[in-house]
Amino acid sequence: MLLDTRLPVRYIFRDILPDIIRVFFISVIFQLLKQFLAQDIPLIPLQLPTVLGGSISLLLAFKISQSYDRWWEARKVWGAITNDSRTLVLQVRTFVADGAALPSELSIQAITYRQIAWCYSLGQALRGLDPMHCLDEFLSEPELAYIQGHANKPLALLDLHANQIKQLYQREAINSFQQVQLDDTQVRLCDAMGRAERIKSTVFPTSYRLMVYLFIYLFLITLSLGLVETIGPWEVPLLLGIATTYFLLERTARYLQDPFNNRPTDTPVTTIARNIEINLKQLLGDSKVPAPLAAEEYYRM
Amino acid sequence: MLLDTRLPVRYIFRDILPDIIRVFFISVIFQLLKQFLAQDIPLIPLQLPTVLGGSISLLLAFKISQSYDRWWEARKVWGAITNDSRTLVLQVRTFVADGAALPSELSIQAITYRQIAWCYSLGQALRGLDPMHCLDEFLSEPELAYIQGHANKPLALLDLHANQIKQLYQREAINSFQQVQLDDTQVRLCDAMGRAERIKSTVFPTSYRLMVYLFIYLFLITLSLGLVETIGPWEVPLLLGIATTYFLLERTARYLQDPFNNRPTDTPVTTIARNIEINLKQLLGDSKVPAPLAAEEYYRM
Amino acid sequence: MLLDTRLPVRYIFRDILPDIIRVFFISVIFQLLKQFLAQDIPLIPLQLPTVLGGSISLLLAFKISQSYDRWWEARKVWGAITNDSRTLVLQVRTFVADGAALPSELSIQAITYRQIAWCYSLGQALRGLDPMHCLDEFLSEPELAYIQGHANKPLALLDLHANQIKQLYQREAINSFQQVQLDDTQVRLCDAMGRAERIKSTVFPTSYRLMVYLFIYLFLITLSLGLVETIGPWEVPLLLGIATTYFLLERTARYLQDPFNNRPTDTPVTTIARNIEINLKQLLGDSKVPAPLAAEEYYRM
Amino acid sequence: MLLDTRLPVRYIFRDILPDIIRVFFISVIFQLLKQFLAQDIPLIPLQLPTVLGGSISLLLAFKISQSYDRWWEARKVWGAITNDSRTLVLQVRTFVADGAALPSELSIQAITYRQIAWCYSLGQALRGLDPMHCLDEFLSEPELAYIQGHANKPLALLDLHANQIKQLYQREAINSFQQVQLDDTQVRLCDAMGRAERIKSTVFPTSYRLMVYLFIYLFLITLSLGLVETIGPWEVPLLLGIATTYFLLERTARYLQDPFNNRPTDTPVTTIARNIEINLKQLLGDSKVPAPLAAEEYYRM
Amino acid sequence: MLLDTRLPVRYIFRDILPDIIRVFFISVIFQLLKQFLAQDIPLIPLQLPTVLGGSISLLLAFKISQSYDRWWEARKVWGAITNDSRTLVLQVRTFVADGAALPSELSIQAITYRQIAWCYSLGQALRGLDPMHCLDEFLSEPELAYIQGHANKPLALLDLHANQIKQLYQREAINSFQQVQLDDTQVRLCDAMGRAERIKSTVFPTSYRLMVYLFIYLFLITLSLGLVETIGPWEVPLLLGIATTYFLLERTARYLQDPFNNRPTDTPVTTIARNIEINLKQLLGDSKVPAPLAAEEYYRM
């Protein structure tokens, strides 16, 4: 997530440099063509690029709006994960009559730490990084061994939750109502995981990007031909300026579309997982509560 | 689902060729008309096609946005199917006290395999393909015989689920709370199936497409008349370029509207069903887990 | 629901004929006025109708989009009715321990047939047709007599459902959990009915239609005055073409707004009710399953 | 709610008269200024008001769309109130084993009548009218005395519902499951009440209205200056026509924003409450069912 | 929340003064540049700023609409908090059989006062103010001591709720169904808290603001160059007027985006918390009910 500070120039520049260069060459070529073929090229009325500019704006407005929705949905999913992680621990603490009498693998601490591990692991998995990273801090040896055999690590962790809830019920630490209520929370966690995976795995319709580019180039060509006789070489910076803003807009939208791609515009899943760790450990009365994750220069991961 | 790769030229071309040809003839005819009837035709001010271009853009923006919503809703439904399939198996594993003691037709494996079969069968049925395809891999003989008699195969599979849950309850393998909780999951599956069928069976208001075409042709005619004296035969490629982008946009939106039509832009139901199969078999501890479905050249089914 | 086929010309024509005639007279009158009062009327710059055209487009885009939402919500409500009808029967079959021992008025078939009757009756009531039409096929004499006395027939049918569920519980055919779970399904059916009635009874803000017309006429007047010196009698077909598309658009939106009005653009409630009948009868193992409702020439009811 | 009939001219006129007068003076003043200062004022190109007109349209489109959403949400809330009122009575009738044996203050009729009272009272309270109006028809003396002491009458009525449910449970007229199910319905009623109050008490961001006015006046000034040399005194009716439609649009949106303000554009809460009364009394088998509320000339309250 | 009254000029002025000054200098510099370099600068056609103006409008429309959604969602969250606070107290009063027999730390008053404290504390925490402010009025000493040790005070208060519910169940003041039903309410409160925190902590994509500024300046430059020969020094107030409205619009949207920032445009969390206090105390029959919070001159906090 980009922070509300001044973005470093290099961050913006790195993004738009290829586009600036490409548009620069296009406008220079147009300029040269016009000098040598002045009498053969048509004088296009400026209403045409105006219409095309309107179409680009509407297409980009659609893209911006849908990609914002994906980004905001991703953030909502992780908000729901925060809420349900807290809820899970509050519920276990409310429901389990005598937590002290449980063996360590069924303790309230075990499910809490596994929930923290699930958050970190899901964040890593969504970003295509190692989903086992740092999990040994929160999981026991047998748990680590169990999830090693699964392709989908977070799902395996939910399976361990399910198993613990089953055993708590069989030992009568919770009753049937409470088992079902805890299962409800787990259904929501499973749902949140699936929604994040859906956003990750669904490609935004590729054709729209193609169409945006088609429109932008058509706009540039007609605009360039429309300006043939009026402004001469001033056309180059002008085309450059306008085209660059459109490309930048398209690119910003494209980045927001994929909020789990290990980029500064990502949903800050690591920061959120750390905050969940802090909340849950404080609910447990744990003494080793870590500090919140420090932000990078202009973004949070 | 189209992948985030370069689309093959032939895929794009196949789509727009008829449109290109039609628009080509239209503009040539206009061109000829103008040469022979130059003094009789009016010089239409270019503001008119500008207004019409704006109306086309807004109408297309509406169409793009609604068809994206249908496509995204279809994807959400299949995300929900993924989540509830996982949830169903997690729940059965949590609730059934002693799975080993059950007869094979009531076993956890039976409901899991039937759930996998349901996903494949629903995907096929939505695409209008054979809903029994490959089901013998997952279902027993009596189950296959039972669903053979139903018009709606996935509904018949849900009926078998319902029957198994009833018998698990009657044998006291699950209690009344757990029966109701499993029933909740089945309600959600039934709901997801119905939502996918609704998207499949509801035709997007036909009149809007008619209107888009009407506007595009009105736009082309006024534009062509408006350019009468300025750009001569250059009009042909210009009209071609602009009209083609509008038609392409309309066509892209139309494809997204119907995400279960056995086309590359479909919701990738087969891929999702395969992923569900992998997840569920790993939860069962099954040894024969298949590989994920390989993608086609530029899309996934 | 209009089908995805070529709409018959007469269907489109019947709709737009009055508008075509009205606009024709308007433009002819303008034409005559201009010939006799040429020196007295102002030459309005074409930017003015351009601005007005933009406003019309945005207002129409709003109207199209909201009426589509109403239409889509109506379709969603009927999708939910399909799902909950199936769910109700699946649940009754799962929950009732021994269906055979029940008296016929409490049998699974009784509630299933009453649910089918409810779907047909709700569809008829929404369209303002006789809500008792054909119900004698599905209901017993005492049931028919009971609902006769109610103003809202579908609500009376739900009351009969409620009564059957109460008696099933009192005879211990279902337990308390199952009663509550069935009640949940009934809450959803009651909700769907209320949502459909809300769409039916809520008039889309009338002022907006007025405003659209005001804008269209203002647009036509300024455009007509703006074209005074350029295109002469060609103005008539031009105004006709543009105005007609705007009126058509407004009219299409208006039709979609009211999806229970016994028109070809209606939500196809009869078709859906018939499909529910087929599904439910097959779940019962009934032998007399009817065929799906045949479509009309270009639409489904 | 405005009906789908011809709105009386005086209703429309009363609304726009002040605006018409104000715009009339503005355009006359501009006209005079131009006659005396013709050489000193700049000739503004008409592209400027075009851009401003586009901005106004987009701002108004936003306002129209958000105010429609508020209005539609208000209608949805009252739709939900209809559904949950019906559901409450159906549930009480299903759950309470032997209604006849209850004392009158705990009878099914008592909760039904109190629910009707709640609907009327909430409607009055939202409109800022007397929330006790006519309640003596539905409530007993002690109930009237109890709610007299509360600032929020509908909340006090829900409290009486809660109390009745508690006593029904203590007398074992309902069991624990049924108590919780009835409580669910009450949670939804409490939720609907809060949502209506939220719409009532939240002021739409005031700055946007300011901005719309700023844009409209800027538009009028630049347009007036842009037309300096072309159309002379015809400018007055032209400005009048265009400005009036914009003001009308803004005003329509503003009215829809506040659907509980005792105006013809209100959500028809009294009509809905009366329909609920009819439905609930028919479910009770009551003999004194009132007629539906008659509509006013062009609206329903 | 800004009230529906005339905003004081100084409030609007304070906001836009820096922008007015900056745009003033920009236009003066352009004016001077043009006087000294008149022959070297190009005459840009006015269609260009028109296209850019359209793009600005669409980008601003997107920003306005998304920031309104955030603001409205924040208001909805606090509406839900109102509803669930009322629900919690109604439920406790319904469920707890004999409130009088409870020790004071488990009394209905204790949970009610803690719920009031939670509302105030959450409001303060969201605004970055002291979350312990005034809590001693509602909480006992041990409760104050307990939450002192937590980073997230409202979460600690929910933990105390959870603990009280656990002890009510262990003392058999509520049964298992009722415990689960109360837990449901607590899940919703935890959810509302998390949703408010999400809105607070998620920065709106920074790049879009950059882009809006880029477009506005590009628009101003091309517009200024386009007006070179027509209107002379009149350009300064004209640019000033147009740019100011765009900046004002962007700024209004930016303020709405962050509804928990201790500004007059905030969601009025203190007012809402006070209203909840009044409602809950009246439900308890408390005698010391405070008055509603008085509004500030033109806003409510």
UniProtKB/TrEMBL annotation, chains A, B, C, D, E:
GO cellular component annotations of the record: plasma membrane
Keywords, alphabetical: Cell membrane, Ion transport, Membrane, Transmembrane, Transmembrane helix, Transport
Record localization: Cell membrane
Membrane-crossing residue ranges in chain numbering: 20-37, 43-62, 208-225
Principal location class: membrane
Bilayer topology annotation: Multi-pass membrane protein
Molecular-function GO terms, alphabetical: chloride channel activity
Top-level taxon of origin: Bacteria
Entry's family note: Belongs to the anion channel-forming bestrophin (TC 1.A.46) family.
PANTHER family: UPF0187 PROTEIN YNEE, VOLTAGE-DEPENDENT ANION CHANNEL-FORMING PROTEIN YNEE
The protein's name: Bestrophin
